[in-house]
Design goal:
With about 350 residues, this protein is of the alpha/beta class. Helix content is about 40%, strand content about 15%. The chain is built from 14 helices and 9 strands. Strands 5-4-2-1-6-3-7-8-9 form a 9-stranded mixed beta sheet, with helices on both faces. Helix 5 crosses helix 7, helix 8 packs across helix 11 and helix 9 crosses helix 11. It is globular.
Length: about 350
């Protein structure tokens, strides 16, 4: 079977590709999709085959472990993590329309990638909702999702939940919650922008789903009860505070709702603590959140030093403040960077 060949997009417009996931009644049948070219400025045209679309927020996972799906009848390789998301999201009846970066952007075309990454803020703003895919059920995630949902239920007595944290016999189920917040998703750079710009958010793990507000309330509860929860979580991982990441993402959402932007220096220093495969994304992953006064063209042909330097200049000029350079005192910073440019990698 031949591999999929992309048709070029118009670089002078807001053209994007949308993934149509074909329905099936069989859970484990082959994943079949189509790619449709649409213009973000004309989504209400009669020629557009869908009334709305959703955007996926996920982690690529291990890029060396791939499986094949079919796109317009041709073979297309995706990571196992993405394949599990597509299988979970496809409907039994009727197509589902989803924007997924790994498929909708030709990742081998650097010029297209530059243009499409610059549109990601608009793509996530325009989606009817953003779907967080934490991955398949594992490590007691079903019980953890149920417990997190239960924390915020009107039928749950908060005192009973606090008492449960203190019971050694219940530590196992709270460790499952810790594992849920220890998933790599919460540490990734791009998900900050994707969640902050979303009109609505749904969180999926395995066959369980909850809304963003329920997850946030549970994260606030865990923060309020850190003294009891952290020792339980710390037995599992060095990274035990993914729930703080949820709160941080919601703060970004509130800033977008209030001012429609986040200061570049704030989001740069926030993303500094996050993880990404390409360190340049610690700048590019911020650009959908900042205002029009920040002008940093996306160019994956530039090296990390140039991009960090350009971002620092933009942060200073857009705020008329030198606060950004106060972040240059970290140990282990790259000697290739100018002394006044923060090393966002450390």
């Amino acid at each position: 079977m031949t591999s999929y060949k992309y048709q070029p997009l118009n670089p002078d417009s807001h053209e994007i590709r949308m993934l149509e996931i074909h329905p099936t009644w069989r859970t484990f049948s082959a994943i079949k999709c189509s790619l449709i070219t649409v213009n973000l400025d004309n989504l209400e045209d009669d020629s557009v085959p869908f009334g709305f679309y959703e955007a996926l927020s996920y982690t690529w996972g291990d890029t060396t472990r791939k499986v094949s799906i079919k796109v317009d009848g041709s073979q297309f390789e995706v990571t196992r993590d993405l394949a599990s998301a597509l299988r979970r999201l496809r409907a039994k009846q009727g197509s589902r329309y989803l924007w997924v970066d790994a498929i909708c952007i030709n990742q081998d075309d650097e010029h297209e990638r530059n243009i499409q990454v610059a549109l990601m803020g608009l793509i996530y703003r325009s989606a009817v909702q953003v779907l967080i895919w934490l991955g398949p059920e594992a490590d007691g995630s079903k019980g953890a999702m149920n417990l997190v949902n239960g924390i915020t239920s009107i039928n749950t007595d908060a005192n009973d939940v606090v008492a449960s944290l203190a019971k050694e016999a219940h530590h196992g189920k709270w460790q499952n919650v810790a594992r849920l917040f220890d998933r790599p998703y919460w540490r990734r750079v791009w998900v900050r922008q994707e969640i902050a710009l979303a009109k609505d958010v749904r969180v999926l793990c395995g066959d369980r789903m909850m809304d963003w507000d329920s997850l946030l309330e549970a994260a606030v509860f865990l923060t309020d009860n850190t003294a009891a929860f952290e020792p339980i979580a710390a037995e599992l991982s060095r990274y035990t505070s993914g729930y703080n990441g949820v709160i941080g993402m919601d703060i970004l959402r509130e800033m977008i709702l209030k001012d429609d932007k986040v200061p570049l220096e704030d989001i740069m220093l926030h993303l500094r603590q996050c993880e990404c495969t390409d360190q340049r994304d610690k700048v590019y992953g911020a650009l959908g959140l900042v205002g029009p006064e920040v002008n940093i063209p996306i160019d994956y042909g530039l090296n990390k030093v140039t991009i960090f330097t350009n971002a620092t200049i933009a942060a200073i000029t857009s705020t008329n403040s030198l606060n950004t350079i106060c972040a240059c005192q970290n140990l282990g910073r790259s000697l290739s960077l100018p002394s006044w440019v923060p090393d966002l990698e450390t």
